[in-house]
Amino acid sequence: SSGYRGMHITRGRLTSLTKKLMIAKR
Predict the structure, then answer these.
(1) What are the b/e assignments for 10-24, b being 16+ CB within 10 Å?
(2) In terms of pTM, does the model score above 0.85?
(3) Which domain of life is it from (predicted)?
(4) Distance between CA atoms of 19 and 6, rounded to whole angstroms?
C-alpha cells in the first residue's frame, strides 16, 4: 500500500511540474 501511495504522489507531482513548464514556456 505504501509503495502505491508513494507512486501516486510522484505521478501527481510530475503532472504539476509539466503543467508549470508548459505555462512557463508560453
Answers:
(1) eeeeeeeeeeeeeee
(2) no
(3) Eukaryota
(4) 20
Over residues 2-24, the pLDDT tens digits come to 666 666 667 778 888 889 989 88
Please, which residues have CB within 8 angstroms of residue 3's CB and are 6 or more apart in sequence?
A: none
C-alpha cell at 20: 508549470
Instruction: Tell me the three cell numbers of residue 7.
Output: 507512486
Q: Report d(CA 25, CA 17) in Å as an integer.
A: 12
